[in-house]
Amino acid sequence: MLGEYQSAIGSASARCAIATYKGSIKKFFMAIGFASARSAIAMQLGCPTEDDRDKPMTVDALKEEIFVNSNENTLLIFPEAKRLTTSIRYWLEDMISAGARVVCFAVANPGRDIFLDMLEIELDLPSDRHIREVMEAEAQKQGLKIDKSRLAELQPLAGRNPMLARKIIKNEALGLKQDKPEHTQYVVIMPIILACLMSFGIVRFIGMGTGNKSLYIFGGVSLVTGMTLKQLGSIKGARKRLGQ
Fold first, then answer.
1. What is the DSSP letter of 48?
2. Helix 148-158 vs helix 128-141: angle between axes, to the nearest 10 degrees?
3. Which element (helix H / strand E) includes 15?
4. Element of type H or E holding 70
5. What is the pLDDT of residue 60?
6. What is the 3-state secondary structure (H, E, C) of 175-207?
């Protein structure tokens, strides 16, 4: 993308940096020290950060400078979009109006202001092979020698989540016991439940047609009881995706 856009893109290379908000709006827009130089949007886009008197610009001046120097060839990517403050999101509205392209990554769509206007694309889950490669890379980083059979045992604990894959290898390096998955993977059995309930309805109609009160009562009571349990089982509390 560097060949096509004037980019501030999440990458660890020398020409790019991760545009992630970490509590300081000024560091988010302008580098203060070497560590923050890799995450300052103004530095990545080549915008000046000092005024005519060689003094650092204010945050509002930086926003205006970046806005003036942005066009349809400007690309902004935010790996942690949920961290963006209200003022940053309002500024991004102006950037989008100026033609800049904005890509935000989040576990779930926050569902407010700019996120309501943006196209939502759900990424495919990583393959098992990719998760295995992540675990092997993390094991090398931790200096842990782990064979393929042990990796096969640990992989189901991570599911399709690379973050959990790295965490599980770290736990393995510390010798922690791991036998419970931290992710959620389940099969939807609602069609089976509905089919069973409908079978009780069939028994009820058979009892009604043949005049068998036992079948009629049994089918009716079973159907009502099953529907009641189904509704009670659908009661759920607040749920958040991993990372929220």
1. -
2. 110
3. none
4. none
5. 87
6. CCCCCCCCCCCCCCCHHHHHHHHHHHHHHHHHH
Give the integer Cα–Cα distance in Å for 95 and 66: 9
Q: How many CB atoms lie within 10 A of CB 108?
A: 12
Q: What is the dihedral of CA 110, 112, 114, 115, to 10 degrees?
A: 30
| Tally of CA atoms within 13 A in the half-sphere of 30 that contains its CB | 19
The DSSP code for 64 is H
DSSP string, 84-136: --HHHHHHHHHHHHTT-EEEE--SS---STHHHHS---PPPPPPHHHHHHHHH
In 3D space, the residue among 89, 158, 161, 149 whose CA is nearest the CA of residue 125 turns out to be 161
- The pTM of the full predicted model, rounded to 2 decimals, is 0.58
Q: What is the pLDDT of residues 107-131, one digit of tens each?
A: 888 888 888 888 888 888 888 889 8
Q: How confident is the model at residue 238 (pLDDT cuts 50, 70, 90)?
A: low
Confirm if 75 and 101 have CB atoms less than 8 A apart: yes
- The count of other CB atoms within 10 Å of the CB of residue 31 is 19
**pLDDT tens readout for residues 132-150:** 899 999 988 888 888 888 8
pLDDT at position 224 over 50: yes
Beta bridge partners of 74: 6
Q: Are 213 and 207 in contact (CB under 8 A)?
A: yes
CB 2 within 8 A of CB 39: no
Q: Which amino acid is at 30?
A: M
Residues in the chain, overall count? 244
